[in-house]
Write a structure and sequence with these properties.
It contains 11 helices and 9 strands. The chain has 318 residues and is of the alpha/beta class. It has a single domain, classed as HUPs (Rossmann fold), CATH 3.40.50.620. The longest helix is centred in the first third of the chain and has 17 residues. It is globular, with a radius of gyration of 20 Å. Bound molecules: glutamic acid.
């Protein structure tokens, strides 16, 4: 089969752990799923199916200000309709937990106690401080260039802000340099302390942050391989550094795949309806057509053609 993936798939067999390893599909239900999510799902399920991995579904609804129950229900419905079945935490398990008001192990909004325990463990080592800075305070002191991420300049690091004053907590990061070998992009070096500064674990509204929740959960769920879009590449160093502070002996392997872009070069967003799975479904697309569209837009097949879910493994198989 002709593949446009650029040859990186040839190295997967040697780079992945022995069969039985675990990865995750971890959407944030802040909107409806779109073709960008489907590109991620094609990689997650395809690589897992080709190399003996297991897929965990994790609902990353940590941001209570942006997530909505109807988006969560939409994720579950879309996955069922597409035939993308998680091996661990199947869609029915989330619906069953919701129906009886029970917490689910892989739904982040239910895991406040897990994150609080992780924060307490770090606090016991003197690594946590309360932070009263707003984004504006940070921008005034540390203006960043367009395209650069803001780096927390450490205003509250030694200010001994009372834990009663705010929910916001930061983790002290020393100037460790993290090196890792991305399974597609090769060797990388990142120094989180100079990229983002001390990590925000919980914001002033009391919501756990993506970086903190995802690192705690990847450790808790025993995730061996993280497969996600390259917009999250810069997060890897800080997640590895945080995972080490939390006692993780071996960081997960990482694979960052390419992102979908519109014809005009702009990144896909949930606000654009032309790629929303619900809208495409309503317009009559079949699951195979959408999987094929995502695979083609990701460069995994040369032309759009219907792709049954069972054929995803072939896109990555040796
Ligand atoms: N929840 C994140 C998102 O939807 C992805 C998490 C990850 O893969 O690390 O963008």
């Amino acid at each position: 089969m002709t593949r446009g993936a650029g040859g990186w798939t040839n190295g997967l067999a040697a780079a992945l752990p022995a069969p039985g390893w675990r990865t995750r599909f971890a959407p944030a239900p802040t909107g409806w799923l779109h073709l960008g999510h489907l590109v991620n799902a094609v990689h997650v399920w395809g690589i897992a199916r080709a190399y003996g991995g297991r897929v965990l579904l994790r609902l990353e609804d940590h941001d209570g200000g942006r997530c909505r129950p109807e988006y969560t229900a939409g994720v579950l419905d879309d996955l069922d309709w597409l035939g993308l079945a998680p091996d661990d935490a199947p869609t029915a398990s989330f619906r069953a937990a919701t129906a009886v008001g029970a917490p689910h192990d892989a739904r982040q909004s239910d895991q406040g106690p897990r994150y609080a325990a992780a924060l307490d463990a770090l606090a016991a080592h003197g690594l946590v401080y309360a932070c009263r800075c707003s984004r504006r305070d940070i921008a005034v002191v540390a203006p960043h260039q367009a395209g650069d991420e803001p780096r927390y300049p450490g205003l509250c690091r030694d200010a001994a802000v009372s834990f009663e004053e705010t929910f916001a907590r930061r983790i002290r990061l020393d100037d460790t340099t993290i090196t890792f070998e991305d399974l597609r992009l090769g060797a990388h070096r990142q120094q989180p302390a100079s990229q983002c500064g001390d990590l925000l674990a919980r914001d002033r509204h009391g919501f756990w942050t993506y970086q903190f929740a995802v690192t705690v959960d990847d450790l808790h769920h025993g995730i061996d391989v993280v497969i996600r879009g390259e917009d999250l590449l810069a997060s890897t160093g800080r997640q590895w550094q945080l995972a080490a502070l939390l006692g993780r002996a071996e960081p997960p392997r990482v694979l960052h795949h390419g992102l979908l872009v519109h014809a005009d070069g702009s990144k896909l967003s949930k606000a654009r309806h032309d790629t929303g799975l619900r809208d495409l479904r309503a317009a009559g697309a079949t699951p195979g057509e959408l999987l094929g569209e995502a695979a083609a837009r990701a460069g995994l097949i040369p032309q759009v053609r219907p792709l049954p879910v069972d054929a995803l493994a072939d896109l990555f198989a040796p």
